[in-house]
């Protein structure tokens, strides 16, 4: 899981099929009989008894047993264990009686450390003698980690460049653009040719590598600072007694910068054997410098040896040292240089997506998708295996409802994606590849995104509101590539704990014990999220009219516009860029949404053609915001209202074409054409919002 702040569980989408033969068959069906006769099933809502029965059917014990099995061994993508778990999921679905269950394979560029020549960081004295070396594995702290730590993948950053780098070191805080600009412009420190050390957090680790490379660093060391992972907890609350990170814990993770293109050698296309592949040196997605993660116990030795001026107060972390910037080493230390020896190789291997289907009784060409990735850096009891354990129980509960006589109006599709940890590869391939014959060929996808957060922060009972989303998990390909929105469900932690993510994220300490004894004894929260997921899926699958409130979207467009004005209004005015067209488009969209909902109140539910027409308009709306040419410099991010921030893919930028080009224009050596690009993006966004309004009009 790339989004560090959530224990994500599911992905849900509604999908519309537009294959001609499917439409023809349905029209033939509609033309028979009367609305009160043969149309009755088409026009009836779902069975009322199912909601409570479905919730009651979901078993915490079953989720626990699923998780116990799924955390019984490591299951890294591209390994035999990863394939074995794909087979286990599909076998479970066949045993449960799903209408279809199958595995689809892809051949992907993955990345692995060399177990025979482990990567390390070393401190050397004035005679080039190595006097400190970082640990290869995390420390075993209980029986479970004693059993598995030596067999899980050793800490590394996937897609790092291999090689050896030796020289001075500079501390660069979080390695953000603003951190490097402050070092260069205010503190007079040049990182060119230096090894830099940065703490995890704030932005995606791949962007830390990208910016380190762009500012001239020769290598990057990443570590998890206790300020971000220990918070208010003390040693007594560290794993295995609690959920806080021990000093030897290391966050694994990829540093791929694919900008939504998916697998790096087949950008935009499925990674099948027949597909042309570019060479590794032809892609900008791969790092050109060595990058390696370490624990904060090892980081202490490096940071404590750095000399130079003290770091700004806000750059100081939670280690009991004076954080200094460098370059070079403190005169009181024996250390005189640092060496990175990184052994990481990229190689193509097969990955495996598993798909299960429960066919709809009335509209089998429409789909509600629930998905979760299956691969893990370690045992992955939180990320992602809790989600897989939940999903397999949700499918069992749905099939029990089918056995009792219920069947969803629309089809349900369940996806267990592979290689998410390497860059969302499995779900991206799912988007890129035409679906197998078991699903209508050429089907397009539609999801509805609503993040569970009260519209009124002071009233937790208010309806959830639409929010923007970045990237970092499997919704990314659907929403940013083909124009969808997603529901991302999960429990998170109290921010008062003072940690930036759940502390054991991507470490060797994500064990069954962590989930069963520390995070969720009795699996009550896991059961709760399974019940919520099942309710939402059924809530999209059964109603005659899809439950979408377009006024919520319209209102949020107004919020986005206000935020844009507050942040950039003065800059836009100073450069003669008018937002009148944007304001007009938002007003038109709001009027169109109001008119649509007024017409919806008077719908003739006895007319199946009218029902289908309104649902088509609801389901097609999101794609109107897609620009087929993509965002400036990021052609695979195509949604004009939301996209991962260009400088932190974990968060979303509103009107990303504008915010990206304004950021560049403010730093451009030739600002005039840069601000013309801003004006162009303003017009593109206005055009797409107006197009969306047009899709809601009464058909001619």
Automatic annotation (TrEMBL):
Keywords: Cell membrane, Dipeptidase, Glycoprotein, Hydrolase, Membrane, Metal-binding, Metalloprotease, Protease, Signal-anchor, Transmembrane, Transmembrane helix, Zinc. CDD domains: PA_GCPII_like. It catalyses: Release of an unsubstituted, C-terminal glutamyl residue, typically from Ac-Asp-Glu or folylpoly-gamma-glutamates. Pfam families: PA, Peptidase_M28, TFR_dimer. Residues 578-696 form the Transferrin receptor-like dimerisation domain. Residues 353-432 form the Peptidase M28 domain. One of its GO terms (molecular function) is metal ion binding. It is an enzyme of class 3 (hydrolase). It is a single-pass type II membrane protein. Residues 165-254 form the PA domain. Its cofactor is Zn(2+). Its main location: membrane. Its EC number is 3.4.17.21. It is found in: Cell membrane. GO terms for cellular component: plasma membrane. The chain crosses the membrane at residues 9-30. It comes from the Eukaryota. One of its GO terms (biological process) is proteolysis. Homodimer. Belongs to the peptidase M28 family. M28B subfamily. This is glutamate carboxypeptidase II. It comes from Branchiostoma floridae.
